[in-house]
Amino acid sequence: MANLDIKIGKLQLKNPVMTASGTFGYGTEYSDFMDISRIGGIIVKGTTLRDRQGNQYPRMAETPSGMLNAVGLQNKGVDYFINHIYPTLKDIDTNILVNLSGSTIEDYVEAAERLNELEKIPGIELNISCPNVKEGGMAFGTSCLSAAQVVREVRRVYKNDMMVKLSPNVTDISEIALAVEAEGADSVSLINTLLGMAINAETRKPYLSTITGGLSGPAVKPVALRMVWQVANAVKIPVVGMGGIMNTADAIEFILAGASAIQIGTANFIDPTITGKVIDGIDDYLNRHGYSSINDIIGAMEV
Amino acid sequence: MLDLIVKKNEALNNQYSLLVLTSPDKLPEMLPGQFAEVRVDNSPSTFLRRPISINYVDYEANELWLLVQIVGEGTRKMCELKVGEVVNLLFPLGNSFTLPESKDAKLLLVGGGVGIAPLLFWGSYLKERGYKCNFLLGGRSKDNLLQLCEFEQFGDVYTTTEDGTHGEKGFVTQHSLLQGSNFDYVYTCGPTPMMKAVAAYAAKTEAICEVSLENTMACGFGTCLCCVTDTIKGHVCVCTEGPVFNITKLKWQI
User: Which of A26, A36, A62 has the highest number of chain B CBs within 10 A, making it the mutation to test binding with B?
Assistant: First the structure.
């Protein structure tokens, strides 16, 4: 057994495998399939200050080696999370993080203040990169100024770990990463989905009710890997990599590119036990290559 | 999540196949209306699992039947599976049809196209429990009417085709069966316009009506939130709160 323990900002993870927000529900949906406490960190469904119905159906389209989604942050709001979901999660022996999104800075701050009170939630993932909402979301994450502003305001009220989830829909993702690092982000996670679209040629209609949506799955992996490498070379805080990870080799690639931990997203839909397989696979990889700790391979790409 | 083995894969015609799966272990209990998420291997263009209704379960023979219509690359691969090949399924998923209160209730099961799939399992389940079923099955032409012999084992079968090649000519809702008699319960699965017309008939005749929806989905167990339908409770997942809905819960304009 290699040592898989890894520190990400203020978080201590038992292994570098986390689940990406919006692909793992509140975690408990996966309890039928596996022991979810094995996972290094679970990031629960995007949560907003008030409840949201999300976008109209259809919200999903399969595309080559991936899928587009336009869910639009459907959730019951932060108070519902605190009163009804949190009690079912607080005794699970892993790091449970809440992905937090908002339409205004005030919304982010108010929800973050409430989450700050939860003893068993060690951190938030600040979502400034959701491409599927009309207001807020990605709009905050596509300029250094607004990204810095929202991180600064939330940092004032939120004392636990703050991971900031970055959008790939920008010219230079390193600039945004540096801007949020300067305002006190404990780590950055990337990438959120790439903005895309699909049209049904026969009916001449878009597949999604919103026309555009977020692309995920193996189709985005080369782009994600490149961005993780760029950001890891730019910032000092830990980088959490994601984007189309389907197996152990994909996860290792992200770690070699500079990620200290990884998130598995879309793959959970196809194999709900994939996180356990990747945890075992990383251990096996380290043993095979004679490394004693996950720390030995972070950013260890040989050029 | 289970690996099942292909016992039989029979092309019913050039559009539909009956995929019969089995396992060395006893298959889990399944309910009519539930579905399986089938992983499609060896198809680079097929990324997600395919949600397929449970067509029939033969517990004695340890068989799970899936009726597959070829609509794209994923379903085409499923129809090409060979006997002995292994298929990975997440199942059983979703809710089920509701058993009527009285065994004397007059029941109508209306299916269109591949939407007949869950009605065979539901019909067999009802017959086993002493209910009497009327099946009304519709298709574009006789090639789209499937499993008629199987349905006849579980109740009376009526058919319509749009081109008149089998049964009465027209849509299911134009069948003479609906003119004379009223039903207490109507269950339907098929294309949405057909289900809406059936739901309107049920509402007019004050029958209790359940419809089985087949929205596109990614996961099948309530985490991707892609398959939502609009209900009186707001957006809910078809995969976990459905696929079977009482029409009074849906916001259908009927």
Answer: A62
Choose among A22, A60, A272: nearest Cβ to B216.
Answer: A60
Q: Please judge whether B224 and A270 are an interchain contact, meaning their C-beta atoms are less than 8 angstroms apart.
A: no
One digit per residue, pLDDT tens: chain A, 303 residues? 899 999 999 999 999 999 999 999 999 999 999 999 999 999 999 999 999 999 999 999 999 999 999 999 999 999 999 999 999 999 999 999 999 999 999 999 999 999 999 999 999 999 999 887 877 778 899 999 999 999 999 999 999 999 999 999 999 999 999 999 999 999 999 999 999 999 999 999 999 999 999 999 999 999 999 999 999 999 999 999 999 999 999 999 999 999 999 999 999 999 999 999 999 999 999 999 999 999 999 999 999
Residues of chain B contacting residue A64, judged by C-beta atoms under 8 Å apart: 44-45, 47
For residue A214, what is the domain's CATH number?
3.20.20.70
A302 within domain boundaries: no
Instruction: Find tokens 């009186």 and name the residue.
Output: B232
Select which of A11, A36, A68, A130 is catalytic. Answer: A130
Cα–Cα distances (Å) from B183 to B98, B104, B110, B179, B187, in that order, read 15, 11, 12, 11, 10
Q: Could you tell me if residue A303 is inside a domain?
A: no
CA angle A204, A209, A213 (to 5 degrees): 100
Domain presence at residue A1: no
Domain residue limits, chain B:
2-93, 107-212
Q: What fold characterizes domain B107-212?
A: Rossmann fold (3.40.50)
CATH architecture of the domain covering B2-93: Beta Barrel (2.40)
> How many angstroms separate the first and last alpha carbons of chain A?
28
Whether A144 is catalytic: no
For residue A29, give the nearest of B44, B223, B230 by CB distance: B223
Overall domain count for chain A = 1
